[in-house]
TrEMBL record:
Protein name per its UniProtKB record: peptidoglycan glycosyltransferase
Protein source organism: Rhizopus oryzae (Mucormycosis agent)
Disordered: annotated span: 238-262
UniProt subcellular location: Cell membrane
Domain (Bifunctional transglycosylase second) ranges: 44-128
EC number, as in UniProt: 2.4.99.28
GO cellular component: plasma membrane
Domain Glycosyl transferase family stretches: 134-229
């Protein structure tokens, strides 16, 4: 009993300490996001001076491609002097500009007509998203973009879980059945074959973000397990704020997210 009491007397304060470290480290996470410099948006209006070669140059600068249909964002189709362009949405100085499909005809060196390609209504003007002309990096040359969890493709999330942690939604950070399976495989092979049993949350714990190291020691593994449990237990229930488009940003402190949260 004395040994049990002594063990609990050490384990409980140490677990609380690691929990505080996990919360603090995730709360302090920052990434440098590069500043992207864009040209002016291309404003199309009836009567605007424009020829097919110039319009194609403008579209190429903004990474549009001619797919012959112009139905997907950043694509267009051309037939003589008739263009069908599917624009991307973007944030302009006066607010959000929604994506749209426009149809325009060129004649006599200018825009002869402009209309919505879906409802066929005439338009007075249409803005296409601008070309990126420069990217300014900080100390690290990283092309990083912060997104919310619900912005990640479903295939990416489900594929990652299927490959790395198929029981992700059924355990609490530690997959005991996976550990037992890995031990059994190692024993049966006489140590010749090894099978991983770390969950995604464990991989996050030893990724370097929590500072517990990656060395193969009992102490490090013990800390990894405790940090994993602390990470799962510490996740807040409030919704995360939208990811910013520039500058430094803190990550949402949600270690085992659902599809509807960060």
């Amino acid at each position: 009993m004395a040994a049990v009491a002594l063990g609990l007397g050490f384990l409980i304060p140490y677990t609380l300490y690691l929990n505080q470290q996990v919360t603090q480290r995730f709360g302090e996470l920052r990434w440098q996001i590069p500043t992207r410099v864009y040209a002016r948006p291309l404003v199309l209006t009836p009567g605007k001076a424009m020829d097919a070669a110039t319009l194609k140059t403008e579209l190429a600068a903004s990474a549009y491609r001619d797919d012959g249909q112009g139905k997907e964002p950043a694509t267009y189709a051309v037939n003589g002097g008739r263009f069908v362009i599917s624009s991307r949405g973007y944030n302009d100085v006066d607010g959000r500009v929604a994506p749209r499909r426009v149809e325009l005809s060129l004649a006599d060196g200018g825009v002869a007509s402009l209309r919505d390609a879906d409802n066929r209504k005439a338009l007075k003007a249409a803005r296409l998203d601008p070309a990126r002309i420069a990217t300014l990096y900080g100390q690290k040359q990283e092309e990083r973009r912060l997104i919310r969890m619900d912005e990640a493709p479903d295939l990416l999330v489900t594929g990652l879980q299927a490959v790395e942690d198929k029981d992700f939604n059924r355990h609490h950070g530690i997959d005991l059945s996976g550990i037992a399976r890995a031990v059994w495989v190692t024993i049966r092979s006489g140590g010749q074959s090894r099978q991983g049993a770390s969950t995604l949350t464990q991989q996050l714990a030893r990724s370097g973000l929590l500072g517990i190291g990656k060395e193969q020691t009992v102490t490090r593994k013990f800390n990894e397990v405790l940090c994993t449990w602390a990470s799962v237990a510490a996740r807040p229930s409030t919704a995360c704020p939208p990811a910013p488009s520039s500058g430094s940003a803190a990550t949402c402190r949600r270690w085992k997210p659902s599809r509807s949260r960060c």
